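Might you be able to check the C-alpha cells below? Thank you kindly.
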Amino acid sequence: MVDIVVLRKPSLIARGHCREREGPGKAGKDRFVDRGAPMAHTRNTKLEAAIGEAGWSQAQTARHVARVAAEAGVSELSGTTRSHINQWIRGAQPSGKAPRILCETLSRGLGRTITLAEIGLTGDQGGPVASWGADPLSALVDTTGKDLDMERRQILTGTAYSVAGLILPDPAWWEQVPRQARERRPTTTRSVDAGDVESVREMVAFFSRRDQRRGGGDARSALVAYLRTDIATYLNGRFLTEQVRQHMFTAAGEAAYLAGWTAFDAGEHSLAQEYFTLAVRLAAEAEDAPLTGHILRAMAHQAVDLGHTRAAVTLAGASLERGRYTQASRREKALLGVVHARSLAAAGRKQDALNALLRAEDDLSNAREDDDEPGRVWFFAEASLAHETACTLRDIADLPAAEREFRRSVRTRRQQAFARTHSVTLGYLGAIQAQQGSLEAACATWNQALDAMGGIHSGRARDTVVQMRRALSPFRRRGNPAATDLDARARTVLAVG
C-alpha cells in the first residue's frame, strides 16, 4: 500500500551543508566452561592463532565477545572477561552458546567466516551464514520451520547476527541463478496461473498493512505459515508461462522480505537475516532487479541499526547496482538513496551522505502515483523520506536540522495506517530534543510516543522506550517531576510489552 500525500518539493535540508571492563570477579572466572567434561590440558593453539591474526589482546577479545553476545541477546555472556578467554586458550571448552558467539566474533574481526573447527572447538556451528548456492525452495521450508517451531526458534534467537553472512555472491552467481531457475522441474502437479500470483500479492499487501499498523510482532506467525504452505506449494508447481513463474517468484520474494522485516522489527535479527537472504535468492530467480535492490536496502538498514557501518555501506551500494536503481520507480529510487545516505553518515562520510540525500529528495519529488511497479507494496512518501533524512542528519550531528525533519515526518504521516513508524519517529524526536537540552519538549513528545504505541508489537518501538528511560535517568535522580512521571509510565509500557 502506498502512503499517498500531495507531493511538493521537500525542503532541501542538505543544500545548506556543502580501560578493560570489569568482570564478575574471581568467583566468575570459570563461568562458560563445560563443567561436564574433564578440564583439558592441551593448549588451543588454533584459537590463540585466530585471536592473534585479528590483532586483539585477550581483554579486547573479551570485550568483542561481550558486544556480540549482547546483540544476540545472550545475557549470560555479557560478563565475559580476559580470564575466560585465557581459559579457552589454555584448553577449556566453552559451554552453551559461547562457541557460536566466539565464532561470530572472530568472523567479524577477520572478515571471513570462521568455523568451530578452525578455532579448535567442537559442537553445532549454528548461525545464519548465507549459503548462496542453497536451493531457495529448501531454504524456505527450513527457515519457516525454525520460525514456527518454538524450540528451534529459541535456539536461533540466541544465535548472533552474522556479519560474515552479509558477503554477497560474485557476479557470476547473479547470471547463473535465473538460468538454473528456468531449468528446475516441478515437484507437484499443481498448475499455477496469474490468478494465483494475484492471490499471493493480495495476502502480502494485507500482512504489510498489518505490520505498519501493529508492528512486526503481530500476525507474523500467520505470514510465516502462509509462506510455508501456500507459497511453497505454488513455487513447486507447474507454471503456465515463464512470465507467471517470474511473477510468482517476485511475489514470494516480497513475502519472504516481509517476514524478514517483521523479524527485524521484533528484534530477532539473525532470523531476519535468514529471511532477507532467502528473499534475495527468490528475487534473483525472478530476475527482478528492483526487488533485489529493495531487499539489499533493508539489509543495509538492519546493518546500520546494529552498528555494522562497513557492511551497511557495501549493502546499500549494492542496492544501487546492476539495474536495481535504474529500473526502479522514482519512489523506490528515493528509498534506496536515503538508506544509502544513512549508511554513509554512519560511516562518517558526511558530504557523500548529504549528496545522497539530495538525490533521494529529487527522486521523490519527481514521483507520480502511477509509476510504481505493479503488484508491489509501497509506503514510501514524504513522511518516510523526512524520517530517514532526520536519521541521517542526526548521525552527522546536525541536531537542529534532524529535529525539523522528524517534525516534518510526524506532521505529514498518515498516523493510523502507519502507527508503528509514527511511534518510532516520535521516540527519536524526543531523544533529539533531550540531547539539545529541551527536557520539557522531550517529555511532551515522549508522552505522545507512548500514546501512539497502544496495541503495537514492535521491538524497535520498544527500544525507543528503553532509550527514553536512559535519557530520563539523570533528571529522575534529581527529582524532576515530569521525568519521574514519564519514567513510571514508560516502565509500565515495558512491563506490559
Remarks:
- The longest helix spans residues 242-265.
- Residues 65 and 105 are 6 Å apart (CA to CA).
- Residues 34-119 form one domain.
